[in-house]
Amino acid sequence: MPSLTRLPGGALLLTTLTAFAGLPGAVAAQSAQVAYNEAFTKEHEGEAFAEALALYREVIADPAADVDLRARAERRARIVAEELAALDLATVFPKSTLVYVELGSPGGELTSLIDQLGLLGTWEGLLTDASGFAISPRLIESLLGVDGAAAGITGIPMGGGPPPGVAVLHPGDVELFRGVLETALPAGLQAVEPVSGHPTFDLEGQALVTMLERLVVVSTSRREIDRVIERIHGERDDTLARSESMIPNLALRNDDLVYACLNFAPLRPLIAMGLAQAAKQDPRAAMVKSLFDIGSLDALVARMGVDDDGLSVETVLRLHEGHQNLAFHFVRGAPVDRETLALVPAGSAAFVSAAFNQRGPALRPIDTDAHGHVAVSALDLGREVFGNLVGMSLFVMPGGPARGAVPVSLPNGMPLPEVAAVFSSNDPERSRALWDLGLGVANLMGGGVTMHGGAVELVGHTAEEYRLPNGMPLYVVGTGTALVVSPSRAAIEHALETRSRGSVLDDPEFASAVDRVGEGSTAIVALHAGRLAGMAGGFVPAAQAREVQMAAALCDRTVLSVVQRHTWDDLGLSLALTGLPDLGPLVNGLLDEGMGRGREFDESIAEALVEEPEVALAASTEAVSGATDTDVLLRRFDLLAKGGEHEAAVALGRGLLQVALDDPRAVNNFAWALLTEERYGGAFDALALELSLATNEATGHERWEYLDTLALARFRLGDVKGAIEAEERALELVGEGESRAELQKALERFRAAANRVSDVGI
């Protein structure tokens, strides 16, 4: 039976050949898995969505990848494509979009705003200083967790009715917000035929709402939603973000809370056609077309943001380079002259500055006769306004007159604030001659015997004092290339002392406003709310004076400023509110008045910790038995911990567990803080384990966040095996969310510790 003896060898050879034949497929399948893993890492750890998307598509196109892997890659590719689109939502809107409005991350912007208002605080911060009322950033994140949203009007309805459009919402990673959407849409709206396989709902016959993997799309048209999906996945390139006319306008976005743009490009042909038709009936339409050069209109952009030092709002009308819009040029002014700003005193309550002409050479001298008498013609007045005057600033000082000067009163008896105007010119002598002439006439009408004013010495300068027809004085003094004019001697003295005492250019309260006066700025208005409120205190009844004083103190750094910018192609208006008032003490004061002695009770515990620890323990124990406010109990726990009363703090913590067991999230967060906050120094790890065991028991060990806390608590107390088991269970529950990478890192750390223990034979 020789053949029988050869069979095993043949079978072995056949098996070997088969194995080698299948090796390339196995290697290729492994390569696809490696690509998937790399894509997943880039997506979650580095947020390199473009690279991750390319890798996922490689896996999808790889014939060696198994069906399950390709299916997972297809879903991840859809998610990543949407996340990539969400980085710039303009990429999913059509080029023909007429009006585009984009909402940034409102949670982050409002958190910054609330922080500047002195109302932001963390749970840990409340425990540390017991500072009272504060809005938690976690609350803002939960309520306003939207990562971004955008809406656009994509056409003009020819038959009336609402305009066609589309809106895209990125709910972000906040579970509460996404949960509300995923629950409310199916429950409150009628499901209709899916769009491109995505669940779609009818919004009361007015619009369709489609739920994608990460985005929510709303539109009046199923076709619009289809095209949005195609742009997300790169199947269409007719996007607003790639429109040549819109690229410079979209570049003005700067992490704003709200950005809006009226895109004139699609409208220009319609406007031109309408004007052409109207011109046949009315010649004024042709004049409008010529004056406004409709074809030059590019966009009207508006933005609102929360900056590091307050709120800002800006609008910009943009025109094409080289336009012939006569109306646009007609209203263009000269740049603000900083010489007039240099004579506006630091400490001013408000100021306005604008310009008439550019700086340049002096005009020819004004005509005088052989005796030096000035001969003024109408042309001289025109030359002064349209050629000689450079800039003007008007300011008002807070408070009453300085140096004991007699206050100037208005005709109605009201005191005149310390207000003055500063004029700069290319030829100050010419300006002075014209002022002297004009005020000399007024002086005669006011009862003076000559056209000349009386000489007055003011801070080392000679000023001319004139009397107006209503009896009010007016002083004029020259300094450098500027004239200072005011009915208040004190105001002029303030202006003349700016070189030694500083101007608004040196005033830190106005620094942000002045910094915004750059190239092309033609006017600025700046109001200091606190200083103006202080001025108002002298004009209100005594019963209201206290409220005005409180407002002045509250707004001691608050400045509202408006700056106009006008260049060859842009006309912009920007508004900024800086130095926002600190509302924290005010709100806490009102709360303390309404809540009685709650804060005093906390302070009594803090004092007792130093003098009578037993009293503190009794007070805290009494608080546990009678209080139901978790935040109050947490603050009192921290007071005990800071005072070194470890046993009392642990007792209160266990009492907190009994009070707040119906809120396992709060208990879990507290346990996590005990484990991770440096101020606790690991002194309460055992208490954290007790709290974590209770929250997991209450939730059936089905919440990955609570299991993650339990794993860390076990690890801290030396139970490495228990920590690994809890973390593995947490990974089973977390799914493919962004937190998975963090849990994986924690598990690897626990396993590494277990290996070290095994290596040393412990």
Could you please describe the fold and organization of this structure?
With 762 residues, this protein is an alpha+beta fold. The chain has four domains: 39-87, no CATH class; 95-306, no CATH class; 349-362 and 377-405 and 414-563, no CATH class; 585-759, Serine Threonine Protein Phosphatase 5, Tetratricopeptide repeat (Alpha Horseshoe). It has a 20-stranded antiparallel β-sheet, with helices on both faces. A hairpin with a 3-residue loop joins strand 19 and strand 20 (570-578). Helix 19 (529-536) packs antiparallel against helix 20 and helix 29 (720-734) packs antiparallel against helix 30 (740-759). The two termini are 61 Å apart.
Characterize this entry briefly:
β14 (454-458) and β15 (461-467) form a beta hairpin. It contains 30 helices and 20 strands. Residues 1-7, 9-23, 123-131, 400-406, 595-617 and 619-628 have low confidence and may be disordered.
List the helices and strands and how they pair.
Blueprint: H1 2-46, H2 49-61, H3 67-86, E1 99-103, H4 106-116, H5 123-129, H6 137-143, E2 148-153, E3 165-170, H7 175-188, E4 190-195, E5 198-203, E6 207-211, E7 216-219, H8 222-232, H9 247-250, E8 258-263, H10 268-281, H11 283-292, E9 297-307, E10 310-319, H12 326-330, H13 338-341, E11 350-355, H14 378-388, E12 389-397, E13 418-425, H15 428-445, E14 454-458, E15 461-467, E16 473-479, E17 482-486, H16 489-496, H17 498-501, H18 511-515, E18 521-528, H19 529-536, H20 542-554, E19 559-566, E20 570-578, H21 584-595, H22 598-611, H23 613-626, H24 630-642, H25 646-659, H26 664-676, H27 685-698, H28 704-716, H29 720-734, H30 740-759
Antiparallel strand pairs: 1-2, 1-8, 2-3, 3-7, 4-5, 5-6, 6-7, 8-9, 9-10, 10-20, 11-12, 11-18, 12-13, 13-17, 14-15, 15-16, 16-17, 18-19, 19-20
Helix pairs in contact: 1-2, 1-3, 2-3, 4-6, 5-24, 10-11, 19-20, 22-23, 22-24, 23-24, 23-25, 24-25, 25-27, 26-27, 26-28, 27-28, 28-29, 29-30
